[in-house]
UniProtKB/TrEMBL annotation:
InterPro entries: Phage_head_morphogenesis_dom. This is Phage head morphogenesis domain-containing protein. It comes from Schleiferilactobacillus shenzhenensis LY-73. The lineage of its organism: Bacteria, Bacillati, Bacillota, Bacilli, Lactobacillales. Residues 188-293 form the Phage head morphogenesis domain.
Length: 321
């Protein structure tokens, strides 16, 4: 695959990431508004947060949870089950927290679906490239400027530092989504307790809820970008290996947000058997937009072992010296 085709593939993949991030932004903003409105209604009703929850409301919540379990994918069903399996709804406070959790679980399922779609799309793009002799339609995305102007000054400790400090590896993408949302629900449980106990008004807690969801959205964005970049790297490694390519080179997308380490990695060459995600293969850190291109060995060597012993004798006859 020619360099320009790999970079075109990268622009397709990373351009799609930006569109998926917009979708995530809308999802998280909607979830924040839903939680704020939910808690505002509880506060407005002036119900005792420790009083017994209305039976009809409890039944509706149970129906909502059952519907979530039915709609969830096979990968997400254990997360839904673990979230609600041992919960007991007795008080208004319990009801408010679990209704909040339902909103977050719905958000997690939508986030996971978006991530799976993006990874599937990356796979499909790789298949399209393979079926079309390494070509893709030209991307209209101009956000990433890939360059060869920088010299290969990166050293191994840079990527080692990236892997150690960012720690994005480990566990499946689904597991990371579920773990992050479980932590968010625990945080919101504490916040709901405080809101209901103190009878806070929406203007007192709205910003806190939005900040919680905004931080979660940023983590979701990192997961999406990192997983998609990782999938693209794996596809490229598979393609290079199948065609007998021995080496690859790091290409860094130089944008306003590109880190210094990734700029320095631009031009670093590795053998295919050295390929290891996060260490010698992109992504090196969350939100990484580096990619790889194949390198052909164009060095020429003279095999002096096969040279005749009298080579050059006609030109340098020393017999009469």
């Amino acid at each position: 695959m020619e360099r320009k085709d790999v970079l075109n593939l990268a622009r397709h993949v990373y351009g799609a990431q930006d569109r998926r991030v917009e979708e995530l932004t809308n999802m998280f903003a909607t979830a924040a508004d839903d939680i704020i409105n939910l808690l505002a209604r509880f506060v407005a009703d002036k119900a005792n947060w420790n009083a017994k929850a209305p039976r009809a409301d409890v039944q509706k919540l149970m129906n909502d949870i059952a519907q979530l379990a039915v709609q969830a994918s096979v990968n997400d069903r254990p997360f839904v089950d673990q979230t609600f399996r041992d919960e007991r709804i007795q008080t208004n406070g319990d009801l408010a927290k679990l209704q909040t959790n339902v909103i977050i679980v719905k958000l997690a399922l939508n986030q996971a679906d978006t991530l799976r779609y993006d990874i599937h799309r990356t796979d499909q793009l790789a298949q399209d490239v393979a079926a079309n002799n390494g070509k893709l339609p030209k991307s209209n995305d101009t956000g990433g400027h890939y360059t060869r102007e920088r010299s290969a000054v990166a050293i191994d400790k840079v990527v080692q530092q990236h892997a150690a400090e960012n720690g994005w590896q480990g566990g499946s993408a689904d597991a990371r989504v579920h773990k992050e949302k479980a932590a968010l629900m625990r945080k919101l449980d504490d916040r709901v307790d405080t809101i209901l106990k103190n009878g806070q008004k929406p203007q007192d807690f709205a910003d806190e809820i939005k900040n919680d969801l905004s931080a979660s959205k940023s983590r979701a964005e990192r997961i999406l970008r990192t997983e998609t970049a990782g999938q693209m790297s794996r596809n490229l490694v598979q393609d290079f290996s199948s065609r007998g390519v021995k080496k690859y080179m790091i290409e860094s997308a130089l944008t306003a947000t590109t880190c210094q380490e990734c700029e320095d990695l631009d031009g670093k060459v590795y053998s295919m058997d050295e390929a290891e995600e996060g260490v010698t293969l992109p992504p090196f850190h969350p939100n990484c937009k580096c990619t790889i291109i194949e390198v052909h060995d164009e060095e020429f060597h003279t095999d002096f072992s096969q040279m005749p012993s009298d080579y050059g004798g006609a030109l340098f006859d020393t017999s009469n010296m």
